[in-house]
Amino acid sequence: MQGRQVGDDQFEVVLELKCEAKTPEASVFLLELTYGGVFQLANIPGDSLQPLLLIECPRLLFPFARRIVSDATRDGGFPPLMIDPIDFVALYRRRLQASQEQGGAETAEV
After folding, report:
1. The whole model's pTM is what?
2. How far apart are CA 59 and CA 74, in angstroms?
3. What is the DSSP letter of 109?
């Protein structure tokens, strides 16, 4: 997932999903989805902006992306692929920890 500022108080958050089904002999299907939204965020303290962009905004987008994946696999003749819920807090914490271990500056990108 990624979050970036696109205008005054406007931020784009993008989820990228890749789903692949394989058999030992061949690939059955590959589905790649980039799903995003633009969020109007005003009066957010600087230290709260990154968690908001990488936890709460993806949490709002995920059910819609999950539905698209389910519908696309079903419409392709396969059983619907129901992606398990994602813990965006845990993903954010891992990203933050990796950033601290590398000594790099925090960015709004995962």
Report:
1. 0.82
2. 23
3. B
